[in-house]
Amino acid sequence: MTSRPTSPRQPRAPRSPLLFVVAALACAAALGWTSWAFVRTSTGQFADAAAWREAGVSSPDLPLPFLQVLDPLPAVSLVIAAGSLLFVVLVRRRYAAASVAVGVILASTLTTQPLKTGVSARPDRGIDTLAFNSLPSGHTTLAASAVAAVFLVVPPRRRPFVAALGGAYSIAAGAATYLNLWHRPADVVAALLVVGTWTLVGGLIVLRTGNGWNRWQGFGAGWMSSRVWLALCWVLGLGGLAVSAVLYFSVQAIGPAPVPGTARLPLFFWSGLALIVGTGFSLSAAAGWLFASQAVLVRPGRR
To answer: pTM, whole model, 2 decimals?
Structure first.
């Protein structure tokens, strides 16, 4: 009995839009909580103001050239994103993916300003801090969204590495605004959550319009697709969040200084910095894992 030749079928992954929708809603909920906790409540305003003032005491000890190198990171990220998108359009001809990536940058940027001027208007809680609202950080949004655009258009085999590198880059850009006293730590965290939300929305579209190139051989097929990158992001992300929480509750146990920024130990400063690091790498790890699980898995040698 002879078997009939069968035509090769395109492998498909169990792509559930529910994962992206739930993740995007969770990211948006975290953004809403951050805005409420650090803008609307006196406790959050005090912690944010104390971290910002303590940064003014701690950051002058950093070498000035180091801070100057960090300043242009948002602009540099736009140049990198523009080059990547041009390559994708002109060489790879992935027009849909490039359009979605540009949309993520625009949506993130356009979301930031209304949140800063309207939705997250800062009420007066009697805290001695900046009189105006600066949440979310526009500089951080610009840098992180440009990195997210690159993450969206690269092949799946490179996304674990790009997630780790992009997370570190976004954190550096956000931390620079904090160390230079342009923003409070919650401003940076909110910006990362804005970009994270729109990146997940963009991913939902990209993975369903680029079935031909959103395929890979799984983790370990190359050094960029190693699990180590996402594992490192998880360790740094969850570790940063844990350190931030421990430092914050340590201050509460000791008793915070009556005036923000007058404590002998700058624990609020380090808690804020750890919160930025933890949020950035946790988002990178989650995005890297989610995109990897939703990309089409093919066997080695199959195209």
So the answer is: 0.88
pLDDT digits (tens, 9 = 90+) for 147-159: 999 999 999 999 9
Which residues, at least 6 apart from 166, have a Cβ–Cβ distance to it below 8 Å? 147, 148, 150, 151, 284
Cα 121 versus chain centre, distance? 23
Residue corresponding to tokens 């990536």: 101
3-class DSSP state of 87: helix
Sequence ranges of the domains in the chain: 17-297
Rounded-to-integer distance, Cα 274 and Cα 295, Å: 31
256 preceded by a cis bond (ω within 30 of 0): no
Torsion of CA 216, 220, 223, 229, to 10 degrees: 100
Sign of the Cα pseudo-torsion (248, 127, 42, 281, in order): negative
Q: Give the contacts of 295 (CB within 8 A, at least 6 positions apart).
A: 13, 156, 159, 207, 214, 215, 216
Lookup result for tokens 């994708």? 88
- Look at residue 27 in the predicted model and tell me its pLDDT: 97
